[in-house]
Amino acid sequence: MLILFNKPYDVLSQFTDRGSPTTRATLSDHIAVPDVYPAGRLDRDSEGLLLLTDDGRLQARIADPRFKLPKTYWVQVEGTPDDDALDRLRRGVTLKDGPTRPATAARIAPPTMLWPRTPPIRVRQSIADTWLSLTITEGRNRQVRRMTAAVGHPTLRLIRWSIGDWTLDDLAPGAWRRA
Questions:
Q1: What positions does the domain Pseudouridine synthase RsuA/RluA-like occupy (predicted)?
Q2: Are 158 and 41 in contact (CB under 8 A)?
């Protein structure tokens, strides 16, 4: 079984929240299917496609960077990245834990099908923001955010649009469907 879930902002990519003095939203607040587990993860402050499965081999294939499954993100960044910044992302940038693999990076129009985020991103009147499409084939901790910051454009909002051939399509935040 494979489940496609549109993880909302501020939801943990796990079914329980152990060790927190306050209760935080988890997958169990949205998905009541037994014996499925996330294949990979999205940070609490990221949104978008999360795959869950009961098949351990499929879970490993999706999450393991050796298989180089492409993951596409729509990233709202501070400022307007010039061609040099995009080229650096395309070549791969060096982070504290080493160089990243080359990425596919392009400026895009603001996605029209997006839902409002609660809370909204911080808006600074004097600084423009730009949407990028960024496709990577690895999945380090907070990698996309660190990559955009490394080229001088911090991430304001991060939405994973696709993993391999699976996409969000018209899946609303907090909704899921079987693939």
A1: 2-150
A2: no
Assess if residue 36 is contained within a domain: yes
143 in helix, strand or coil?
A: helix
Q: Is residue 179 part of a domain?
A: no
Read off the pLDDT of residues 53-110 as tens digits, 9 standing for 90 and up.
999 999 988 888 788 899 999 999 999 999 999 999 999 999 999 999 999 999 999 9
pTM higher than 0.90: yes
> Which residue among 10, 17, 43, 45 is the active-site one?
43
Chain centroid offset of residue 51 CA: 12
- Paired residues of 6 in beta bridges: 49
User: Range of 79's domain?
Assistant: 2-169
Catalytic-residue membership of 43: yes
- Quote the mean pLDDT of the chain: 94
